[in-house]
Amino acid sequence: MEPLLLAFLVTLGAGLATGIGSFLAFAAKDTNKKFLSFMLGLSAGVMIYVSLVEIFQKAVASLGEAYGDHALGYLWATIGFFGGVAVIYVIDHFMHGSVEGSPHEAHEAHEMDHPDKEEHERRALLKMGTFTALAIAIHNFPEGLATFLATLDEPALGISLAIAIAIHNVPEGVAVSIPIYHATGSRMKAFWYSFGSGLAEPVGALLGYFLFIQFVSDQVFGVIFAGVAGIMVFIALDELLPAAQKYGFHHHSIIGAIMGMGIMAVSLVLFLF
Q: What's the whole-model pTM score?
């Protein structure tokens, strides 16, 4: 098989694993608030753990190598992280001001005797799922490029990397599919949002390789990863966990968050071997 075709297929397989997580939405029921609370907590745990343990550390390593100084790399990664937080906060602020039924309103809707409470919650979940899909797609873009280049350079290494990415892409798919499904009631929409976020991986591989490879540097790669880590942590803390706990099942959401972290930890440990 041609090296370019193999690298593309390996990257495609890793990215589309995100869509597998959407099938978990098929088991969900609209009335099962415990399940929704647990799964939203699990999604938050996945995003927090992978952001702080994997993505941010990759950013530090890339920037440290670029500047030849680990401390300086850590400093720029930190700036990039909070830069990502600032970007998603500004986006959230403008969406809050322009879209009725923002997540902030929905977070408090259960405490109010509001006639449109269900509609507020539905809109909040839909926006949450859309934001999560966007963050994962941004994260998958450089990840796809990394998998593609690794497979071109050393197929065995690239395949091992793709397997590890595929494992932790499955729970990332859950992070997209669960809120979309509960917002729309459509299994197909939940699947396509999740599936679409995974497509960013092969798209990132192709566009990155054929169009932008000459501009990619350790500095750019590191700043992108740090910013994406900040975006994902913000979404988990501002959207996923508040939404998970507002249904009144606090322990279910926390257990879900811990299990989400555990799933990501296992996938990363497996990659080491």
A: 0.65
